[in-house]
Amino acid sequence: MHSNPSLRIFVVESAMKLILILLLTSTALRAQVPHIDYMIADEAKSQLQIHGTFGPDHTGGATIEGVPCSVRFWSDTMVICDLPDSGAGSGGHVIVQQMSGTSNARMLSIFKMTILSPLYYYQAGTIPYFIGDGSTTWNLNWRADIYKRPKNISQIIPFEISKSSLGEWVKTEGNLPYPDIKLSWSDSIHISDTTITLFGELDLLNFKIIFKPTQIQSTPSYTFKDSIPFMESYLMPTLSFDSNGFLSSYKRNDTTFDVQHGSKEIHADGVFNQKILFPPRIKNSVTQSPLPCSDPIKIFSHIGSEDHSISLEAEGPLGETTASLYSIEGRLLKQEKISIPQAGMYSFDVSGINARMGFLVFKTEKGIVARKVVF
Hints:
Blueprint: H1 5-30, E1 35-42, E2 47-53, E3 61-64, E4 67-69, E5 71-74, E6 78-82, E7 92-98, E8 101-102, E9 106-123, E10 129-144, E11 156-160, E12 166-173, E13 181-185, E14 195-197, E15 199-203, E16 208-211, E17 214-219, E18 230-234, E19 239-240, E20 250-258, E21 263-277, E22 297-300, E23 309-314, E24 319-327, E25 332-340, E26 344-349, E27 357-364, E28 367-374
Parallel strand pairs: 13-14
Antiparallel strand pairs: 1-2, 2-6, 3-4, 3-7, 5-6, 7-8, 7-9, 9-10, 9-21, 10-12, 11-15, 12-13, 14-17, 15-16, 16-19, 17-18, 20-21, 22-23, 23-26, 24-25, 24-27, 27-28
């Protein structure tokens, strides 16, 4: 009996196709799901470095809080993508997707603070009077991944403020003939005229923010001859933080006497409005928006309340607002709707809740407000 050549060819081709399918399937099964180990924000370049294991497939993508970002570089161990200086996609959950799967979500936290450094100058004499009075305000932010890192990676993270940071020198009293001055961002290497810069290191082992000596450029000179810009050196004290969103503040006052010229200078400075958006250890699904420059709700709860309620102040009408109270471990303790038709004082009832510390999250049309509270 003679065999059919066409049948033999068909059988061979089918076997080859089956082997190819098995090989491709085996390769796909062996492909490693991407994993993010840690991230570094490069504020000067407006880029985010994502370090981890991403495998040989370079056709994937990355998102920051659900916003796709443009990938500039892709290797087996690092992905570099564009990082918006502010607004949507400037912080939050970072995820890498490949054909082999979706990576773990890593949090890019946003540090925000306002630094107030007023300078008061007094002239001594029979009747003391002002010769100058002004203040410098910095509204600063920067991004960092502050969650635990692999042991072989340094736990000291260098940081620099973001390009969306702004400063302003404002004349408040006295007879200074100089106008207000806006202070724009400058990186720590190329400090130019009329700028601010602030940089330092985040110590993840001790949860400390160690600032380097920084400078504010082009504050008006306190002389009556001419307006000669000068550079003021400024050293921020060390601040503390944690992965739950706590960020410390400070306030200090220094007085200097000039006996030769008979003058007194009072220098007071401090940090306020400090917060960490997207802290990595708040275990809830609420998305915090980095868009609002100021909170629509102020929470007054850190000293507790005898009537078992948390007081809050709305700066304006917010309509129906969802208030959610979470435990430190991220367990939802209570959630309710609060109608806020106008500016004023409101309250959130916490009676019957055994916990005495947690996170209170308000979801409004103007954004998300999240605070650690004691009640």
